[in-house]
Write a structure and sequence with these properties.
alpha/beta; Rossmann fold; N-(1-d-carboxylethyl)-l-norvaline Dehydrogenase, domain 2; nine-stranded mixed sheet; 13 helices; 54% helix; globular; NADP binding; oxidoreductase activity; NAD(P)-bd_dom_sf
Length: 289
């Protein structure tokens, strides 16, 4: 069993660290708000640290699940010189590929392994140990961290060198943005046409229109309930990262850019903490509902 540190106990990190502990790994956690660390230690075997540096001492693996590039960089800079040689720093945050490459280089200078490993599956996936993990880094880093990450993974793919995991996560978010907008428009159209939503979904979900979003979100979308899954505020952060990368590599993302602005409208409606399926609320508001 491994000695692990887990830095960041949000809606994803809290259960992910819990799965590590439940599999018998020795886990020490840190969170910016100490109350979350205390709540974690009450629910799981393990210890809490007052600082990131204190959390990582002696750890074979240091996992981060934070907010955005500035958070990741600040915490990583704090812990790198306190990690033992040969340990692995694994970042589950959705962040930029450029930062992943920067931290990979910093790890290499210190004899550490690096893996950027953003996840997909949302809060439910984290709680159920059913996350999809997209990894970038060396073969050695993936081979070392994979068996430990299996505590909360449904699937893991090694996509390439440092930064590749983040690039694959960008593809994931690009695809989701278009899918949710299409589903929102389909449901909105069905209602305007006087169709029964359940009947429509039963008909189209058996064919080419089927998707995870349709299977899991159509009913709550039709009912105007948006407290399930990934928040709009975080989706806009992820789409910002993807659009910045697209400007750098020359990719054209017209639908993604448009849906990003639709999410901005959702934020202006007070829906920043609604889940991403709330795109239908913007359409219904325009119709006067």
């Amino acid at each position: 069993m491994a000695h692990a540190a887990f830095l960041g106990l949000g809606v994803m990190g809290f259960p992910m660290a819990g799965h590590l502990a439940s599999k018998g790994h020795q886990v020490r956690v840190w969170n910016r708000t100490r109350a979350k660390s205390d709540a974690w230690t009450q629910a799981h075997p393990g210890a809490a640290a007052d600082t990131p540096a204190n959390a990582v001492g002696g750890a074979d693996f240091v996992f981060m699940c934070l907010g955005d590039d500035p958070d990741v960089r600040a915490v990583a800079v704090t812990v790198l010189d306190h990690m033992k040689p040969g340990a692995a720093l694994v970042d589950h945050t959705t962040a930029s590929a450029a930062l992943a490459r920067e931290l990979d280089a910093a790890c290499a200078q210190r004899g550490l392994l690096w893996l950027d490993a953003p996840v997909s599956g949302g809060q439910a996936g984290a709680e159920n140990g059913q996350l999809s993990i997209m990894c970038g880094g060396s073969d050695a880093a993936f081979a070392a961290a994979g068996p430990v990450m299996a505590a909360y993974a449904k699937s893991m793919v090694h996509a390439g060198p440092a930064g590749a995991g983040q690039l694959v996560k960008m593809v994931n978010q690009i695809c989701i943005a278009g899918l949710v907008q299409g589903l929102a428009e389909g449901l909105h159209f069905a209602e305007a046409a006087g169709l029964d939503a359940e009947t429509v979904i039963n008909a189209v979900s058996k064919g080419a229109a089927q998707s995870w979003q349709m299977d899991n979100r159509w009913q709550t979308m039709a009912q105007g309930e948006f407290n399930f899954g990934f928040a709009v505020d975080w989706m806009r952060k992820d789409l910002r990262i993807a659009l910045e990368e697209a400007r750098a590599n020359g990719a054209h993302l017209p639908v993604t850019a448009l849906v990003d602005q639709f999410y901005a409208e959702i934020q202006s409606m007070g829906g920043g903490r609604w889940d991403t399926s709330s795109l239908i609320a913007r359409l219904n508001a325009a119709k006067g509902e």
